[in-house]
Amino acid sequence: MVPLLVLVSLIVFGLVLLVPGDPAVTIAGEDATDAQIAATRQRMGLDDPLLEQYWRWASAAVQGDLGTSMFSNRSVSGAIAERFPATLSLTAMAIVLALLVSVPAAIAAALHRGGWIDRTATLGTAVGVAMPNFWLGLLLATVFALHLDLLPATGYVPLDDAPLAWLAHLLLPAATLGLAAAAELTRQLRSALIDVFDQDYLRTARAKGLRGGSVVTKHALKNAATPVVTVLGMRISVLLGGTVVVEQIFGIPGLGQLAIEAVLQRDLPMVQGVVVVTAVLVMLANLAVDLSYGYFNPKVRAR
């Protein structure tokens, strides 16, 4: 993880430098004189060599200091910490919804292979994978918020303030993100379960008189979970990327919305901070997936 994080930080720092324009001109203002622009550039350290600029930024980032916003003079770390709970809540609820939909659907499809349940699940996964997040979000908001008036269309309420309002405001955006993940997880889990159902040890378990539910939950599901967990780890990065669009649609003040604001304002330290934090979250999720293999597959622990 450490070499990968160093590589990500180098790429982020380098790409931001390629953004057209001079940050000193943006901060000083278009009407600023050459002397004012030069003073701003010197104050921000933009005249220093690139390696020195990177080392100064990276060494501070390791200590939790991601710099200061060019426009609001706020701490980047503080702004990210303020927006992070909304994005974390949205991503976590999307994962929960994806699992609640995908696991029963995959089990039902695998148990009724070739039947109408299996064909319906296969069609649903195809639609879910192909459907764009922004279109699904607008559709859900139109139906459930505008026409049926069941859920709020925009906004976010912290969990500590009102748990029920927090849940109501997150259902639509979480469904927007979670349904696509549910489609992919259903497809993978169905295929894995079908392979496991054909194994000899499951035939032996059925021959010994074990009930169908016990065979599925205690034996088949655990052994089929390894590829599904891998896909789930990959989907976490997609979910975090999808929050950029979904948070804009539903007006959620999270990291995605913060990233959009920073890009539009050309707030380079804020862009760098959001990207690095997102990369760390993805790497931690992948680490958790790797560690979970030891639970689902005891052979991994023996190596």
Automatic annotation (TrEMBL):
Subcellular locations according to the entry: Cell membrane
Topological relation to the membrane, as annotated: Multi-pass membrane protein
A single Gene Ontology CC term: plasma membrane
Source superkingdom: Bacteria
Location (main, coarse): membrane
Residue span(s) of domain ABC transmembrane type-1: 84-293
Residue stretches spanning the membrane: 90-111, 123-146, 166-185, 228-250, 270-296
Pfam family for this entry, one: BPD_transp_1
GO biological process, one term: transmembrane transport
PROSITE patterns cross-referenced by the UniProt entry: ABC_TM1
Keywords in alphabetical order: Cell membrane, Membrane, Transmembrane, Transmembrane helix, Transport
Family as reported in the entry's similarity comment: Belongs to the binding-protein-dependent transport system permease family.
Name of protein: ABC transporter permease
Organism from which the protein derives: Saccharopolyspora montiporae
